[in-house]
Structure formats: C-alpha cells, structure tokens
Design a protein that fits this description.
The structure is a single chain. By secondary structure, the chain is α+β, with helices and mostly antiparallel strands. It has three domains: 193 residues, Histidine kinase-like ATPase, C-terminal domain (Heat Shock Protein 90, 2-Layer Sandwich); 138 residues, Ribosomal Protein S5, domain 2, CATH 3.30.230; 180 residues, Ribosomal Protein S8, Chain: A, domain 1 (2-Layer Sandwich), CATH 3.30.1370.100. 34% of the residues lie in helices and 24% in strands. It contains 18 helices and 24 strands. It has an eight-stranded mixed sheet. Strands 9-10-15-12-13 form a five-stranded mixed sheet, with helices on both faces. Strands 18-19-20-24 form a four-stranded antiparallel sheet. A hairpin with a 2-residue loop joins β7 and β8. α1 packs across α4, α6 runs antiparallel to α13 and α9 packs parallel to α10. The longest helix is centred in the C-terminal third of the chain and has 19 residues.
C-alpha cells in the first residue's frame, strides 16, 4: 500500500475551518458580514464565555429559503458570485462560500431564518458539520445564526484560545470596526445578557467614531478626504499628540472591508513621519474606495488581505490625503510638517531595550572594577552642562560626560525593579481621581488585568462600561503625564493570554515607567541635582548603559587628553 492517501471529508473540513475560524472574533466577523450582505439594517450580537460557549447573531435581512439554508452549510456554496470573472469584481463581504461550512465543522450551529413576516420560518441544526435536525418553526423576518461550543471537536484548537476577557476584547474590536465601516446599520453587542456596546444610526460619522473608539477619539480625530481619479480616500486622522506606542489604532478599510495591508499601513505612517517619533504610531481610520476590478480580495480565506492593481497610486493618494489635512489644520504649525526634526528616545518610549528579566537577584554587575570611570565622580570636581542634555564633570583625573536622561533612566529602572521585587511599585494617591475613558475592547482587557495594573502602581476602579476612576498612580511618573503612560500599558494588555510570560510583560512595563519617569534632555539641572545623579548612578548594578543599550557616560582621562594634544 502506498504512503499517499486521500484525507477524509471530516479532516478536510477541519483544515478549511482553521483558515477561516481562528478565534471567536473571526466567527463574529463572518456572521455579521453575511448579515450585512443580506441587507440587514439591525444586527444583534450575543456572546457568552468570551464567544467559546455561545455566539448568536440576529439580523433583519432578507432571510433564506429552506433549500438555501441547507445549501449554505455546504462548502463553496454562495449567492455572491457565479463565475471566475466575478472573483475580480467582488462587491460583497462574503463570496468564497466557506464561512458557514467552516464554522459548522468545528461547533454546534443552529440557524433560524424567515423570508417574509408572518410566514413560517425554517430551522436547521448542525453538529460538527453534520445536519441532524431541520424543519419549520416560528420566526421573525431575517436570520439568526447560533454557534455553541466552538472547537468542541478540536480540543487542540480550544487550548490556544486566550481568556474569556481577552477573546471578548477581540470581539468588541471586531464589532467596532464593522460599525465604523457600516454607519447605516444599527449594532448591539451583549455579553452574558448585558449590553456592552450600542451603535445606533447617526447622521454624523464622527458620532459613531466616538462610540467605537472613545470620546477622546471623537474630539482629537479630524476628517480628511480626497479623490485621485477613480480612487477615493477618506477617514479620520488623529492629532500628532493623540498617538500610541503600538499600531492597533490604525483601522484600514478597502471598499468598506476591514483589512490588514502593509502598503496602506506604511502610507499612513509615512504621512505622519515628520510629526511623530519613529516608535510612535498615529490613530487613523482610513477608507479606500475604488472599483472592485482594481483590487483583489481573494488573497486569503479570511478575506482580510488585499492586492492592488496599482499600489503606487494607492500609496500616493493616502499619503497626500492625510498630509493635506495635517497641513491645513489650525492646531498644527505648517512648519512642523515641512521641516521634520530628529527626535531622541525620550520623546517616545522604545521597547528596544537590553532585556533584563525580573527578579534582579543573581544579576551580574557591569560596574567597572578598580580604577573606575565612575571614580571621577569623587572628590573635588567642576561641573557643567552642554545643550541642557550632557553633564560635564571635571577633575584632576580627566573629564566624564554623562547623558542625563540615559543615566537617570538607568537609576530609575533599578529602583523600580527593586520595588517590584519587594512587593509592588510605590503609589501616589490622587486627591481628585482622574476619569479614564476607553474603547470597549480596551475596557474589557483592563477589567481582566486590574490586579496586574495595581501591582504596577495604577489603582483603578470601574465606573461604567468604558470608564474607570484612576485613584493612584506610580510615584515615579506622578509629576509627568501618568494617564498617557497608563494608556500605553493598556494598549499592550490585549495581547496577554493565560500562557503569557508575565515576568516578561512586567519587565516591559517597568522599562516604560523608567523612561517616562526620568529627567528629560533639554532641562537645566542644578549642581546639587547633577552630583546626586552622579552618586546614584555610581551605586547602580549596571551603571554603564541605559535600558535601551546606549552608554550613560563617556570617560576622557587626563592621559587621553595628553595624547590628543600630543603631549606624549
């Protein structure tokens, strides 16, 4: 008997499902897009157990006949296209005919559909891809698709799901994206019977923007739009001060389809390049509208990737549309866009630090031994400052130059690590609590990690579905802008799962606090402040480099000076 054999239909179905159904949010996306294609104007999404236990999507669309309902559960059956040529002019969200079949292969599915109000509806039940019940039933016009026990027959896939709170945050983000792209549809999202998000019909797009991304987005994001031939670019772009440490604030849509695309992502970043530090990311909602034949959406079964016939045209159009809005904005000096400035790491936290795991015990010191460069800090010395950035210490032995931000960041990092190892980061209570408003997905992630944030010095108390009272902040950043630091941390939380290396995550956060809580460049330091910094740096475990790997000081000895001036 040969080694090559045909796979069973069950295995084929589960392989296909793995390409379409990655997590509960993917199921929600496929079902909601089917509802929109069916002409629905009201869509209700109900979730239990973060989507692993139940996903129910109810719409008021056109419904299906019994024959269509049965056929829709077969692979590669669709009403959206009929020929190969149609693949290159797709005008609907769904078209591959794989979504329902893939979902039904790895879950227990119940569909209730009705084409006319007052007439009998049709119900069909499927388990693991096999139909075991069907028949007439009562039902309102439209369709309800109920997905229970996702991955019940694929336990290996079930293990890869993250916690219910994390999965719910992904679902909330998916619904927010679909709501942004379809402002003529009313959306409701429930979890465990409780209404989490409501997107009513709004005459202004900016109102839905605030509902999907938070009040601050509605206030600090501005409309842009331009046309380049058959290509129309539109959307909302945030002010340069309204940015993030990660790219999750960039929402991309092509013909109202949510996509992941490197070309569009690069174009958005390029538009902001003169305005933001390299490690910061803008917040942008971008819509690209173009003829269906000018874009290929048949790249991946998830339909989340696209290819453009003329990518250069698209890139130029996006950069131009966003930059024109920025240049014309009264709140931004035009010179800021025309004359980009170099920025240092302290302008925005960069995660590219030299890894230092927690706890600190057993960590080897890089403090120089014997005739140390730091020995120049001792005894009688002169002090100066260059460009309010570099400290100069002179003595009989030579000159030491210190990067004040890098040195203080090293000092601060080791203090925070020591506090964290002992118990938690030291806090400063706020006399008047600050109000923090988040998007729904961010709020769900925060709820799951309140103890972790508290350990890092941020004491939060839930005040509403999307709002929190901030009652304490880390002492080290209390005099800075602690809410900005907190928002950066929240931006990273959604990637945490039950199997996450929390030691590593906390290490990242401690480095962020150290960067934000350290003295900045371009600040005058009094001599007593400078000498205190020298002394603290000398006592560090690893004084020679900052957490990003840059040197904290450079020594020029008296012998080196003699050589420079050819005295030896």
């Amino acid at each position: 008997m040969g080694k090559i054999r045909a796979l069973t239909s069950e295995v084929i179905a589960q392989i296909a499902a793995g390409e379409v159904v990655e997590r509960p949010a993917a199921v929600v996306k496929e079902l909601v897009e089917n509802a929109i294609d069916a002409g629905a104007r009201e869509i209700k999404i109900e979730i239990r157990g973060g989507g692993a236990k139940l996903i129910r999507v109810t719409d008021n669309g056109e419904g299906m006949s019994p024959d269509d309902a049965r056929l829709a559960l077969e692979r590669h059956t669709t009403s959206k296209i009929s020929s190969a040529e149609d693949l290159f002019a797709v005008r609907t969200f769904g078209f591959r005919g794989e979504a329902l079949a893939a979902i039904a292969a790895v879950s227990k599915v119940r569909i209730v559909t009705c084409r006319e109000a007052g007439s009998p509806g049709f119900e069909i039940r499927v388990e693991g891809g096999s139909i075991f019940q069907s028949g007439e039933t009562a039902g309102a016009k439209g369709t309800t698709v109920e997905v229970q026990d996702l991955f019940f027959n694929v336990p290996v896939r079930l293990k890869f799901l993250k916690s219910p709170g994390t999965e719910l945050s992904h679902i909330a983000d998916t619904v927010a994206r679909l709501a942004l792209a379809n402002d003529s549809v009313r959306f409701q999202l429930f979890h465990e019977g409780r209404l989490l998000a409501h997107y009513p019909l709004r005459p202004q797009g900016s109102a839905r923007l605030a509902e999907a991304m938070g009040r601050e987005a509605g206030e600090k994001m501005h409309r842009f739009g331009a046309r380049n031939g058959a290509v129309e670019i539109s959307g909302y772009a945030g002010e340069p001060g309204f940015d993030r440490a990660n790219p999750r604030g960039i929402y991309l849509f092509v013909n109202r389809r949510p996509v992941r695309d490197r070309l569009l992502h690069h174009a958005v970043q390029e538009a902001y390049r003169p305005l933001l530090p390299k490690e910061r990311n803008p917040v942008v909602v971008l819509f690209v509208e173009l003829p269906p034949e000018a874009v290929d959406v048949n790249v991946h079964p998830s339909k989340g990737e696209v290819k453009f016939v003329d990518p250069d045209l698209i890139h130029r159009s996006v950069v131009g549309a966003i930059r024109r809005m920025l240049e014309e904005s009264p709140w931004l000096p035009k010179a800021a866009i025309l004359r980009p400035e170099a920025r240092e790491c302290e302008g925005g936290y960069s995660p590219a630090f030299v890894p230092e795991e927690i706890p600190l015990k057993g960590l080897e010191s890089d403090r120089p031994q014997g005739d140390s460069a730091l020995d120049l800090f001792r005894g009688k010395a002169g002090y100066g400052q260059i460009r309010q950035t570099y400290l100069v210490l002179t003595s009989e032995e030579g000159i030491t130059l210190i990067d004040q931000h890098a040195a203080h960041e090293r000092i601060t990092l080791e203090k925070l690590q020591e506090q964290f190892f002992e118990k938690e980061i030291r806090k400063q209570l706020l006399m008047v609590p600050e109000i923090l408003e988040l998007s729904l997905s961010e709020a769900q992630a925060v709820l799951e990690h309140l103890p972790d944030l508290d350990r890092m010095g941020f004491s939060l108390e839930q005040g509403g579905e999307r709002t929190f009272w901030v009652r304490a902040v880390p002492e080290i950043v209390a005099g800075q802008e602690p809410l900005l630091v907190l928002k950066e941390m929240i931006g990273e939380i959604s990637s945490w799962g039950r199997e996450a290396d929390l030691n590593r995550q906390f290490s990242n956060w401690i480095h962020l606090l150290a960067c934000r809580g350290s003295v900045r460049a371009s600040r005058n330091l009094r001599s007593e402040e400078a000498f205190s910094l020298f002394e603290q740096l000398q006592n560090c475990v690893s004084p020679a480099r900052c957490p990003h790997g840059r040197p904290t000081f450079i020594k020029i000895s008296a012998d080196d000076l003699d050589k420079m001036f050819q005295r030896k």
